[in-house]
UniProtKB/TrEMBL annotation:
It comes from the Bacteria. This is Sec-independent protein translocase protein TatC. It is a multi-pass membrane protein. It comes from Streptomyces vastus. Residues 288-310 are annotated as: Disordered. Keywords: Cell membrane, Membrane, Protein transport, Translocation, Transmembrane, Transmembrane helix, Transport. Belongs to the TatC family. Part of the twin-arginine translocation (Tat) system that transports large folded proteins containing a characteristic twin-arginine motif in their signal peptide across membranes. Together with TatB, TatC is part of a receptor directly interacting with Tat signal peptides. Residues 297-310 have a biased composition (Basic and acidic residues). The chain crosses the membrane at residues 29-47, 91-111, 123-146, 173-194, 206-223, 229-251. The Tat system comprises two distinct complexes: a TatABC complex, containing multiple copies of TatA, TatB and TatC subunits, and a separate TatA complex, containing only TatA subunits. Substrates initially bind to the TatABC complex, which probably triggers association of the separate TatA complex to form the active translocon. HAMAP family: TatC.
Amino acid sequence: MLKSARKKPKDPEGRMPLVEHLRELRNRLVKALFAIVPLTVLALFFAKDIAEFISAPVPTCSEAEAAAQEGRCAVLSQMGLTSPFTTYMKVSLVAALIVAAPVWLYQFWAFVAPGLHRNEKKYALTVVSIGTPLFLLGAYLAHWILPYAVRTLLGFSIGGSVNYITVDDMIDISVKLTLAFGLAFQLPIVLSLLNVGGVLSGRRMLGWWRSMVMIIAVFAALVTPTDPVSMIALAVPMTALYFGAVAFSLFNDRRRARGRGPELSDDEASDLDLTPEAIGEVEAVSAGQAALPQQADSDRDRINGYDDVT
């Protein structure tokens, strides 16, 4: 009872001191962990199947076949006594992060939402419902291009050599690609939020299209393995999602302009209507309102030279 009475009411505009922001961030992280940790424990029971699924893109063969085929296949191995256990933990955590994507995406949005206006917070469910499929689509695309990336990388092998690929290596590259593709596919969500919040206009984003196409191409080249298939597979969807966000922003700006009239730039003055209009008859004083004091008709009625006591 006393605890609820001492609790301060929340600011409707989401303003809070730095300590409150840090406490809010901690609470959101804890809530996300409450979803990730149980899913990680559950995924441990299926870790072997998940590891085999992640390692499936590797063209495996024996040592003799690997030396004869000159890099067209590799030997899949696990190095060290603790490697199988760490492999189980890694694949379980990756599976939990992917499955729990709706939870931690919502927690991230809930942390950002208090800084938005009240009419902008209603997009929380929409953001999560769109962001989660986009993240999963990026993760699926990363797994789809992984076999092509592995074959391309194995093609640089020296003749007669044997390639040993550990399961940990496959998990690492799978995690990097999954996070890179999944988070990259959140680009339209971020741009749309900036537009809804009034930070960026659709016209400005459209003016950046040349720079954005170049940035997306460089980003795709950095986060993907050194093969053109992976780069194109990431750059093309990201570019399409960028232009989709631009189209949404232009439509949203037009809708907003219809609702509040024409917008003016910072250095542009609005037009003034200087047309004179008739004032019309003065309305009579309504009942219950005090009338102005009656003015004196002659000097005899003046008090000390003034019309009234004031």
